[in-house]
Amino acid sequence: MNSLQFLLFIPGLLLYNRVASLKCYECDLMGNKSMYSCFDPLDTTHDDVRVTECPDLRHSCLKVKTQFEDGDVFYQRKCGKAKYKDSCKNLHVNGTNYTLAVELCSCRTDLCNIAVPVPVSSTRTALLAAVLWGFLRSVQT
Q1: What's the pLDDT tens digit per position in 94-117?
Q2: For residue 113, which of 35, 54, 57 has the smallest C-alpha distance?
Q3: Residue 120: φ, ψ to 5°
Q4: Which pairs from 135-139 meet CB under 8 Å and 24+ separation?
Q5: Looking at the chain, which terminus has fewer C-beta neighbours within 10 angstroms, N or C?
Q6: 25 within 8 A of 111, measured Cβ to Cβ
Q7: What is the CATH number of the domain that holds 99?
Q8: Local structure of 6: helix, strand or coil
Q9: How many other C-beta atoms can be found within 10 angstroms of the C-beta atom of residue 42?
Q10: Domain extent for 34
């Protein structure tokens, strides 16, 4: 591969995850209080944990942790509709007779909702730096 081909390859590499269908882990605890496979750490070998290919209008993977006032915790992992930034947000939902603590984590790479996301921009920057460093080393030799 010559230098020009290599340099043209880099943008394609960085944009790949925007073109390919996103894959996310999907599971929830609703309706089955004895199922802990969706909890942290995620048990990816459990039958209730699925890898799903997100529909075209779903651009992120989500991990939602909801804690009820009585201490019960509900986890859900799924594809997300919006193009959320890679982040986690803590929210408080106040109802008439209850308050919920919700942690919403979103990410935009395949199977990233296994844990708290690392920002994609940092990942891309590190990848680009490694590729460019390797390229510059090969040119100097």
Answers
A1: 988 888 999 999 999 999 999 854
A2: 54
A3: -60, -35
A4: 135/3, 135/6, 135/7, 139/3
A5: C
A6: yes
A7: 2.10.60.10
A8: helix
A9: 19
A10: 3-140
